[in-house]
Amino acid sequence: MVKKFLIRAMALLFVSSFVILGAKENIKIGAIVAATGPASFLGDPELKTLQHYVAKINKNGGVNGQMIELIHYDTGANPKKAVTFTKRLINQDEVVAIIGPSTSGETMAILKFVKKAKIPLISMAGAVAIIDPVKPYVFKIVATDRMACQKVMQDLNKRNLTNLALISGSGGFGKSMRKQCKEVAPDFGIKIVADETYGKKDSDMTSQLLKIKNNKNVQVVLNPGFGQGPAIVTKNYRQLKIKHPLYQSHGVASKKYIEIAGDAANGVRLVAPPVVVADKLDDSIAYKKVALTYKNEYEKAFNSQVSSFGGHAYDSLYIIVEAIKRAGSTNPEKIRDEIEKTQGFKGVDGIVNLSPTDHLGLDTKTGMIMLEIKNGDWTIVK
Amino acid sequence: MIELFGYMLSGVTVGFIYTLVGLGFTVIYNSSGIINFSQGEFVMAGGMSTVFLLYAGLPLGVAFVLAIMITSLIGIVLYKLISFSKDSSQISLIILTLGFAIFLRGLAQVIFDKQLHTMPSFVGDGAFEIFETTLTYQALAVIVVSIVIVISLYLFFNKTKTGQAMMAASNNVDAAKLMGINIKKILMLNFAISAVIASIGGILLTPITSTNYEVGIMLGLKGFCAAIIGGLGTPFGAVAGGLVLGILESLVAGYVSSEYKDAVAFIVLLAILFFMPGGIFGNLKSQRV
Description:
The complex is a heterodimer. By secondary structure, chain A is α/β, with parallel strands linked by helices. Helices cover 44% and strands 17% of the residues of chain A. Chain A has two domains: 24-143 and 289-352, Rossmann fold; 146-272, Response regulator (Rossmann fold). In chain A, β1, α2 and β2 (68-74) form a beta-alpha-beta unit. Chain B has one domain: ABC transporter involved in vitamin B12 uptake, BtuC, CATH 1.10.3470. Chain B contains eleven helices and two strands. In chain B, strands 1-2 form a two-stranded antiparallel sheet. In chain B, α1 packs across α6, α2 (39-55) crosses α8 (183-209) and α9 runs parallel beside α11. The chains are: A alpha/beta, B mainly alpha. The interface between A and B is large, with 33 and 41 residues.
């Protein structure tokens, strides 16, 4: 008797589950993020942001009456895992678009698979190589290190400084930005007169800085890198009483840097994505509201400081969602076409204008902001 | 000339940091013959727990003492794990310490977080100006504390009964047992001491380098190099090794290229192992087989 009842109950459940699913087929969006491991400072806020906003979109009725289903995998910043998960997203989960991966190496590793499957991908990594040359199915909304270099050099031109010393971290980020800066320097009439590096776990950079200090040609110093390195560079820089202006990269555009470098950070200039100073942006800036809302919402939901990385996830998600809305379809090809037509998208990272020849859509005017640290807080350099 | 002085001073500062980590290796090796590869993680545990105890609102002194106690407990836990598997070969035990290091790193990610943390310098933010370069108070604190620890370790190992018992245990376990030395207690004490030294290192380093869950990896590696270069088993060896390493790195960064700085550390390590297998201060002990 009991057995019979159980079988009936299960049959009923089975049938009803079909009815529920049939009524509203979910839109499956894939995400590949490095939520743990060495790049977790990127992947962790990215994943949190995606989960938070997917839930929010669904609560407000979803997209075109359909719910979004976020299928996410954690790669631990391992390109091999990124490839495995990309294949799984494409073949098993049958997603209509993919967000991620968090790092450039992983993104480069999966490009050929999304191309073959014709699934649109919005990468959250930094390297220029991802969208240059343009690949039909690959987009990214993160300002490149090349843009950061250009932004710094524009500022140097304004201050009539031409002789730049580089002191770069030897991690992937520092290396790549150092290369980009050396490439764009001649465009701005800037000479690299010193080129030092340090290991990313080094505890003292005095030797390298002494060398720079004793180089009579140096007028200004730029430090591409992230993590603890730039904070130590900044402290050593002040201890050695080096008088030249010091520039930092967007790699340290968080309050954490000021906290760790302390008073030494005062007077440092750095390039930063707008979200970091969302509350200080001029009201006339079109994306201020988006950036500020995101910042407040993130900080409230997760009780931790906002970073630009989560902002990349926000922008990626909403560019896809709006593309789906416009396409009125979940066909990956149609979504891709609509993503490419994105114009004037107000995102956390700035105004995004995509086109068949530009799959980045940000420029140095809106995608990056020059900041100076005064009294332990950001001020915007006009 | 002033340039050279600057590089030397920077090298000495870094060298004492390596020394402080290297000392921990020395202590455990002295008693058990094991290389404890979770030494760097002990340093991390000391720094991270101090930072988070400070966040919790505890006064500086209390946070220090608690952090040191927590870390020494971790050291004792490691000893317990090792004593469970006491029949294993030394290599297995060394691998066990490596695994414990990975475990501690993971645990720190869960208990604390993955962010960088720092704390204010507790000896003041100032610096001495010497010629055209500077020595911060905090760096000086590292140097002074290292020297104090080295001297007290030397006195402990050579002048106290417990210390002598430890040396005996390291030389010949069976003979030591026959002499009535409580090997288990001695070993446990050793792991605790080593963890205490590491946590003091972690506390002293945090204001200089800041800390996070993986800060121990490179520190552990460099400290290990320092201990090997100087000769495992003698506290003075750790000082010599740390200084050689720190100064060489600094000189290479200054005069050659900062790109080759880390390579030099490991080249020196290889050279020492080839030509002076006992290290600068070490005399090769007869192998326990």
